[in-house]
Amino acid sequence: MSNLKFLHFPVAAKAVLLIAALGLLSIAANWFCLERLDEFDRLNATVTRHLAPARLALAEAKAASESFGVAVYKDYSASDPDQAKESVEEMEGQYNAAGRSLNNVLAVYPAAADDSGAYSTSSSSSTASPPRSAAASKAARRNRPSAW
User: How do residues 74-85 score in pLDDT, each as one tens digit?
Assistant: First the structure.
């Protein structure tokens, strides 16, 4: 024990040394955290630069699908054949606009094709149009499954 006499400091000195060591460790930890935050900022900027156009196209697709829903409601509530014909044309336009917007998403962000699920980019499904007449659309509504 006589060898360790040089470590016998007063309690206050030991507290000061401990506080100083903890301060240095805290400075080192903060520096490493700030480095990681800078990396996250760079990664966020890269991801935003690549995904922002796809998000804009998705917003356009969402707006078109909402407009399509309004057109379907107009078609369903139309009492005049001319109104029904006009709403069917509007439905077709909104349906095509939504399809174009979704195709734009796939053009900007091709990896989204794996997430598209039931949506297909083939010409047969992306250019399919809603029923042409009010009578055909009402018949389609009567024949749809009850799960809808």
Answer: 888 888 888 888
User: Chain-centre distance of CA 71, in angstroms?
Assistant: 25
The residue segments making up the domain with residue 38 are: 12-113+128-138
The DSSP H or E segment spanning 59 is: helix 11-77
Q: For residue range 9-19, list pLDDT tens digits in order.
A: 888 888 999 99
CA distance 113 to 126: 14
16 is a domain residue: yes
Residue 121: pLDDT over 70? no
The b/e string for 84-107 (b: 16+ C-beta within 10 A; e otherwise) is: bebbbebbbbbbbbbbebbebbbe
Entry pTM: 0.46
93, 99, 101, 107 alpha-carbon torsion, rounded to 10°: -150
Q: How many domains does the chain have?
A: 1
Is residue 102 a contact partner of residue 119, using CB atoms and an 8 Å limit?
yes
Is residue 47 situated within a structural domain? yes
